Amino acid sequence: MGTTLRIFAAVVLALTLLTGFYLSGKARRDTEQRVADLQAGVDRGEQAVESEAKALPRSLELDPTQFEARMKEDLARFELPPMSLVDLAAPNAYFEEVAEPFTLAPGKAWSSAHVRIKVRLDKVNYMQRGARISSVHVIARVENISDVPIAYRLVLSGEAGNCEVRGAREHNAVSLAPGEEAEIVVCAGRDRVIVESLEVLEVTMLGHYYLGQVSPTAFGQDAISAASHRPQGPVSMCSDLDTKAHAAYLQAGTASWADMADFYSRHDCHRLHFFPGYHRAEEPLAALPVAPPA
Questions:
Q1: Pick from 143, 135, 240: nearest CA to 191
Q2: pTM of the entire structure?
């Protein structure tokens, strides 16, 4: 009997170890695949949350009563306190917090009224020509130090120039809640960081979630930044958004970043899309939603 029990225990132990090795290997493979996806600008959507909202005809999406009803559904979905259309229509404060470029060395930090940027060096994994590489990168940790959610447009580069080949770390690349941080991988190597510009738009918490649904490529960011975009909460990305057209509006000067961020802080991109001619509201909006001219 004792021999039988020992054999049984040995079999159980062997199976446990094999299972552990398999799961450990799977976790490593999943991580490496995610790194490859980030490098290639591919979003497999493992963490995507399916939208609970059903599409309505466009005429209904533009109806103020339907808009308010859908807003209340969104507040419940995001577990936010009640707010009114008047609250959502209020102007969002805009700030240009960096107008002239400056340089930050690793270990140095800088703060504005809304964000703190701290530069450091750390190893980052990424894929290059099919090979997994781990190398030192310069990273900017960006924290929302204000007491309100913000949309932000932060343009960074390495002192040696833009780095098209680099690793990435998941973060919200469009908006940050109070206290939320974003680790932005700027460049491979022990470079210093040039902070070229920073724009900030104060938004509501609902606006923060709405903005998180928009791909950073719509705001002119590159594919690696877009693939590393991971907003917190039950957020579903807007897969049918024409991000190239949005980026073209910015490049042509047809719209500004603040115009676009302001629009998507008030409108769910699953239902309504930005249109040229919309401008950041500096006074309370007369009504929501805002519709393009007939």
A1: 135
A2: 0.80
